Amino acid sequence: MSYVRNECDMALLIRNGRVVTAGSDAVADVLVEGETIVAVGRDLAAPASAEVLDATDKLVLPGFIDPHVHIHLPFMGTHAKDDHASASKAALVGGTTSLIEMICPGPDEDPVEAYELWKSKAAGAASCDYGFHMGVTNFDESTPDKLKKIVEDGTASFKVFLAYKGALGVSDEELFNTLELAAELGVIVTAHCENESLVSELQQRLLADGKTGPEWHEPSRPVRVEAEGVHHLMTFAELTGAHVYVVHTSCQEAVEAAAAAKARGVQAWIETVIPYLVLDDTYAQQTGFEGAKYVMSPPIRDEQHQPYLWNALANRTISTVATDHAPFDFKGQKEMGRDNFTMIPNGIPSVEHRVQLLYHHGVTTGRIDLSTFVDSASTQAAKLFGLYPKKGTIAVGSDADLVVWDPDWEGVLSVDTHHMQTDYSAFEGWEQVGRADTVTVRGEVMVRGGEFVGPEGKGQFLKREPTH
Hints:
By secondary structure, the protein is of the alpha/beta class. It has a domain of 322 residues: Alpha-Beta Barrel (TIM Barrel), CATH 3.20.20. It is built from 12 helices and 19 strands. The strands form 3 sheets. Strands 1, 2, 3, 4, 5, 16, 17, 18 and 19 form a 9-stranded mixed sheet that branches. A hairpin with a 2-residue loop joins strand 18 and strand 19. Helix 4 crosses helix 7.
């Protein structure tokens, strides 16, 4: 449904909260008029018509940004379960006010047609703001003009896959041409880094040996294969001068490969996703096919990688924490791979719980501080993808995307209470401390007391200019 808003006389004052951004931390008030923050300070006066929220003993944070989600996703013979209505509600309840979705056209699909299709799925349905990374799965003589048209429309980032041989993956020639065009246009390229040929060969050998269960997914895509993919991308980025962003790094070796390139001058940034920080490969090794719930690519790794990832996040080697949200049901979808792990749809539904898990397992444990929490889950994504300071901070003139966070809330995650449309939760029964209590999108209260209160379909397309 579409949403029409009358902004006249709309005002909101959030009082007495601990206002935390990537670079500041102080008790203050935040005054919103219409869609915009108009003042931040102590003892602010509000218009007579303003709604006043008392945030005493709570945190006031910038709306969080998930820069890596899949919502409309035809994949591996099926289709992801969420649509923009459900995914955006889930995101908002979790404190995420902006999503950047990966457009993944088939290799024979026209890029402009795919782009318009993906946009149409979100328009009028999303309740949070949204943008896109344009997937490049083929590159011929017509591609540059089509991609330029997409960039002119406001989508200033590309996505390439160095995986999924015969489907989404690009050849070296296509990778080079995409990066060269991106450098010319000032567009950043996000990349799924593995080595598709090595993965394919390892998969076939494991299956030939009768190793068909979900526990063999990780051995088919080991850490060296991911690290090789990162190294490969960095070589091409160095030769073309393109700016690159490595999505969902899962292990020490992959992060080190990107960090080494950065040290020699390659313009590169590193993302991890919340499953790698809180899950390990024992979940995928569960009996009775339960491990299929935890199959994603790259795979969740041995727990020895987690301290390294947390440290790399804390010292800001890792810039962002996203989700790679790719929601598939256990029954009927994950089960497609009961006799062949390569047929299990990849993905762990997590758009609703990313921020909560990062706070509970990062901030409350002392692994990261509050400024890193905000920077990695909001501000860096805004800066990297052309949204800052409109998004990603609390400042005069910024969009009034705000989260009043209750650090004392205690509860349990469950499929029975989540807003995602999957039939399972990867975090079933996990006890958590802290949640988004109140969430606004451009000044409109969308969540109260941890519950979505609408209105539906409020989300706007985030038109972005090239910044690289």
